[in-house]
Amino acid sequence: MIPEFCVFYGVLTFSWIEFLWEQYLTLRQRRVYKTTDKIPERLTDVLDVVTFNKAKSYGIDKNSFSIAEEWINMIISTGFICFNGFTLLWNFSKYCLAETRYNDSEIMTSCVFLLCMNTLGTIMSLPITAYSTFIIEEKHGFNKQTFNFFIKDKIKNFLLVQVISLPITAAAITIVKWGGHYFFIWLWIFAVVTSLFIMTVYPEFIAPMFDKYTPLPDGVLKSRIEELAKKVKFPLYKIYIVEGSKRSAHSNAYFYGFFNNKRIVLYDTLLKDNKDIMNNKTLVEENTFDDEIEENIYVDKIKENGKGMNDDEILAVLGHELGHWKLNHILFYLIISQVNLFIMLFVFGWLYDNSMLYRAFGFYESTHPVIIGLAIIFQYVFSPYNTVISFAMTTLSRQLEFQADAFAKKLGLAKSLETGLISLHNDNLGFPVYDSLFSAWHHTHPQLLERLEAISKTD
């Protein structure tokens, strides 16, 4: 058999094996949803029957949606491979530039190609995303978006992706053409610098384009967070509240920043009847709301159904997040990701000019565009490698979560962390029971019961 056909059928076979494996795991978890009728003994005092049944219904609906979504995506992916999608889009991109002075420019053709890929991807994913948002999330009380807000959000996101990705693509192609045999080293350095730049710029300038960030007002909560940061020597610069409630009822907290400019961000849905927040009119008055969102709804959403956490629980969750920083988990992840990127770019440098790979996907032109090579190698050739790495990183992540919980426990926040995790779990309608194989493959965080057991153990 001709080598390119081996590559073609190998890629297609692995794609379907991985897809069927994912379907098998999803069906295993579906059986857990269907057959689990009792609240786990550990949670009987903190999880009522109504919330348990809601979580079960939410889990089943998401599971059904996941099965349908995966089938749709797999059929589209298979069709794209079988009908030589890369060749069709590349030829269309060249056609778009045929009557311009850029008709022979690989960089401009690549930018048009990427724009076409991103446009098709956005259009095809839009119905799926809309169904998830306005049917699944709406049904279970999480969606807070109007349709107009949803469309505006998608348009802004699409435009932002093009503004960022097109110049980066042009620069990457230039580096490959200019860098000689060791271009992968220069490309890796460019990727590292670019990723660090985006990590720095995104929270400050890009994220506020989608959500409103407001400084946490002075008060008890702010003082206690500052004391906690000082205790672990965390260089806290500012504390923000992000207006996530106009988008979803799900809650979260995180921090960002380099060196001595760390910021902590709390979702407004995380706060529960906090007087420092609720009585501070500045928080509402200074916010710029969409036309469809009334100011008085903002406070109501925070108080909705008594969801959220008290101050002790918020501090415990932040203690967990600070544990990731103190134990250098973030630096560890950054190093692993950059080493992995270097390996992938090294292999790309070795393979990208191999005619057989291009022919395997119906690309028979004498020239080998960089962007086509990147798409084929990173998306398909590396697929088995990416699967193994993803599972390894998921397993590692679960262990690091246990370590961060242990750090919060050493700060004397064990009880509050337990109740905080339960509050988060209940507010987000997390189901308390998961199939072990499904969880091991998908969950970057341990199951709630596993975390509670680890926290409750004596040192």
Automatic annotation (TrEMBL):
Gene Ontology molecular function: any one: metalloendopeptidase activity
Cofactor notes: Binds 1 zinc ion per subunit.
Pfam families named in the record: Peptidase_M48, Peptidase_M48_N
Reactions catalysed, as given in the entry: Hydrolyzes the peptide bond -P2-(S-farnesyl or geranylgeranyl)C-P1'-P2'-P3'-COOH where P1' and P2' are amino acids with aliphatic side chains and P3' is any C-terminal residue
E.C. numbers: 3.4.24.84
GO cellular component: endoplasmic reticulum membrane
Localization of this protein: Endoplasmic reticulum membrane
Cofactor entry: Zn(2+)
Presence of the UniProt keyword NAD in the record: no
GO BP: CAAX-box protein processing
Keywords: Endoplasmic reticulum, Hydrolase, Membrane, Metal-binding, Metalloprotease, Protease, Transmembrane, Transmembrane helix, Zinc
Entry binding sites for Zn(2+): H320, H324, E401
InterPro entries, per database record: CAXX_Prtase_1, Peptidase_M48, Peptidase_M48_N
Protein name: CAAX prenyl protease
